[in-house]
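worker-03 picked up job from queue 'complexes'. Input manifest follows; two sequence lines, order preserved.
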Amino acid sequence: MGSSRSKISFSELLPIAEWLPGYKKSDLAGDMLAGLIVAIMLVPQSMAYAMLAGLPPQVGLYASIVPLVAYAAFGSSKVLAVGPVAMVSLLTLSSVGAYARGGTAEFIALALLLALIAGIIQLAMGAARLGFFVNFLSHPVLVGFTSAAAIVIGVSQLKHIFGISVSRTEQPYQAIGEIISALPGTNSVTLTIGILSIGLLIYFRSFLAKQLLRLRVPENIAASIGKAGALVVVLLGTAFVWLLGLDMANSVKIVGAIPTGLPPLTIPDLNIEDVTALLPAAMIISLVGFTESISIATTLASRRRQKIDANQELIALGASNIAASFTGGYPVTGGLSRSAVNAGSGANTPLSSIITAVLIVVTVLFLTPLFYFLPQAVLGAIVVVAVAGLFDLKSFVHIWRYSKTDAIALLATFFGVLLFNIEVGIGIGVGTALVLYLYRTSRPHIAVVGRVGKTEHFRNINRHKVDVCPETHAVRIDESLYFANARSLENTLLNAVAENKELKNIVLICSAVNQIDSSALETLERVIDELRSAGVRLFLAEVKGPVMDRLKSIGFVDRFGEENIFLSTHLAFEHLGCANGV
Amino acid sequence: MGSSRSKISFSELLPIAEWLPGYKKSDLAGDMLAGLIVAIMLVPQSMAYAMLAGLPPQVGLYASIVPLVAYAAFGSSKVLAVGPVAMVSLLTLSSVGAYARGGTAEFIALALLLALIAGIIQLAMGAARLGFFVNFLSHPVLVGFTSAAAIVIGVSQLKHIFGISVSRTEQPYQAIGEIISALPGTNSVTLTIGILSIGLLIYFRSFLAKQLLRLRVPENIAASIGKAGALVVVLLGTAFVWLLGLDMANSVKIVGAIPTGLPPLTIPDLNIEDVTALLPAAMIISLVGFTESISIATTLASRRRQKIDANQELIALGASNIAASFTGGYPVTGGLSRSAVNAGSGANTPLSSIITAVLIVVTVLFLTPLFYFLPQAVLGAIVVVAVAGLFDLKSFVHIWRYSKTDAIALLATFFGVLLFNIEVGIGIGVGTALVLYLYRTSRPHIAVVGRVGKTEHFRNINRHKVDVCPETHAVRIDESLYFANARSLENTLLNAVAENKELKNIVLICSAVNQIDSSALETLERVIDELRSAGVRLFLAEVKGPVMDRLKSIGFVDRFGEENIFLSTHLAFEHLGCANGV
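worker-03 finished. Artifact:
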């Protein structure tokens, strides 16, 4: 029941070859409505995230056209909505920003290259069936990263909301200092627009849908109106600035002229120096983007009893990013809120994404002049409200209560991102999680057990009233045996022997041992020798089938003696004359 | 039964405070004989290893005095023989050699500093009870490293045996090229001495003791004579060169003048630049040295039912290295052959090491002029024969047969050391082992099980003829649930649901789950929600006590419902109306 299969059918590699020819008319209404609602969300969001990434707004729109079609062709999810997202936009800013100034032609060119590299990495990982690599990003590391990124993103938008200019800084604590010293130059009109936008967005998101429901508006219409907050603040903000001339009279910064027309065909400039410089960030983007996307896709698919193939998802996201790099975009991935809206609005097939893409084409062809007077503060407000929910104190408290070691990995990532940068933070987090995991398994729970009454049950002598034999110890190890804990087992057994001079037999109960790697096997063979030279015999009990198969194949069982391996602890004790706890 | 204790007694911190006041006269004969035999081995070996490390021969002798006393005071092993060893000498050469030319005053100063840093690291790790870090060096990584190091060391000694001079090179494949092009300049007299020495050493090691036994020489005397090979070749080689004047007539390179007198008091020069440069190598030395030493100490102690404390060993080795750095030595650790000889010759207490140290003092005070005519080829031969046994093809074949993933980690280390350098090789090996371990556990064995006949046993439906229910699946996962495999479990369960439209209940059998980390808990909670929204209920069975305690503490059991967790799979199936495989 593993996730890998040796044979992959054509329709699995190119899902559109299956769903498009078999398209049912009855699915069309749902797909069109969902495609429209996602487009209404996506137009303002994509411009806002492009601004967050240090890119002109049209780049966000361009990244919302061909990448969506590419995902519709290759993706295994029926409802995932691909496009610019906050986290990946931040990663773009932090990596490209180290080599070029935001908004410049060089910056845009590097963002295209970044999308290409990230796409190639995802495509290659998918083709090589390496989806498992994403497992390195454990839940605590993701929570730590997301919460820190929410702070970094929120702080980065304050300059738009306050209408001040600050120089770009690497670390958020420096940025906060810069902002505080620039506060006297706050543009009060801009700030008013920003605060009103935030208030309106929160109202739409958290209260409006419930109020509409109470007014007996049908549920799906109420939900759709609740999602249109970004569009409403964009329209209102633009109208106010245009009608009152706030851009000239009060120096409110506006988006300005957005080029009209189809996305340009762009060919990323593949020079080795830039590729090397962007590679670490592209690795992080491909993994973080994939993790975010697959989680959403899996959750949404399971509700409909549909399947998601992790490696196919890598291929589809890779295709989307490569498409973005050739059509003037920047790195994309599956987004949470838009995908949920897509599914909730009745999307049945990836056609809804293609409809969204068509509507964005209409936007870039005809509607961009409408955004000329759009205040940047409104886009900043959209980003701030979108990421505010990502700061996840609840998960931290939960993880802290459940496992201190996991909480340490979370905090290491969180402060790593805040004090250094995203790559270092994630690196520290992943390393910490690995070391702590090994530390935990390197000190497995090892219990000396004894017989409960006259039964065949054996329990921990420290927790239960049990009968024991002075000459025979039964030791249960509650972990697979591998390099990190082989020495711990050796110490435990040899110390038991050193402490009990009467001890003659040790029965090692392997009921919790799912595998024995070669380090542990080597240690086990050495322990047997060491115990023998100390006059103590070792026996095994309850060895699992697959473990036993491997031990047999290497000749261990022959050397050790099959008669020294017992099906149950009870049989071992009977054999050793310890049947009634004497 | 863990290895850490919160209270540590004084005699555990300073074992000499226990064994010396209680010293028994009856132990003295054994300690004196063992001390003498180890000294006879140590004098030539310590000079040979110093030469291998790029240091003058007296440095090896100096490293064999105070460090031995320091270990005798702090060590928890009664018979471990500390001093210069091949592996650590090679590490010293490769790390210090990057910053200074062998034999220069600067080189010697850096070697002292390296000993100090490695000692401080060991001391600190011991004090912080961080002995578990050594577990990162898995058996395959150690075998790969040792085998590659044996080649590097062997190649490095060829120039002494052929009597040629080659410039120092980083990689062994470069060194072999250098040696081949220098072969026309071979000194045939030197080569003859080298080959005869190697032959004699092999004869002593492998044949002489057996022959003496056949001649009815008592066993312990025969064994002792067998160990004196190095001393014999040193005496013979020195005598020949001196008597025949080979150093002048045939340009045979000799050791030359060794200063007479006690080791100098040296104070390592602690400047931040050198410390930073040597830090990675010092880390590797402290870990590799400790790993080698603790393995030997554990093996020897177990035969006598004595205890070894890993953290105390770190403290003792740290003290030895710090002692070496203040008395003109270089990094040391416990050596395999000398420790085995020490134990085999009847050493009862660490007094034997103190006796060895006293005899080395006698050597540096009075006997160094005897080594003036000692040919370098003899020392080279001693090193080559000592390391030849470290090339471990047998372990490689064994590991390859047992586990391909472990063999990959071994080969990665082996070629990493040969093609790059030791630090990079070990880094690659440790990283590979970790990734492969996670890969293995990220795809755990997951079996759908069914009832065997009318019993309460449940086995894999693919391996056994069992009864199943179409509406209820029992799924057994054979691994702890943690971040690397949480997603795999989720995929398996959701795919099972997507493939079987009749499925209504899943029983997850947790008999092999020793822990659930917060990533897996988060996934489990999500899976429960996802299954519920797909109309499938999840139940747990056979959850272990410690896992259940943690799940209760975080409120999972209350949310999930204690009635959904069953003691056994049988009870779960009965409850779900699947009692007789209907």
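worker-03 released lock.
The CA atoms of residues 147 and 390 of chain B lie 6 Å apart.
The mean pLDDT of chain B is 88.
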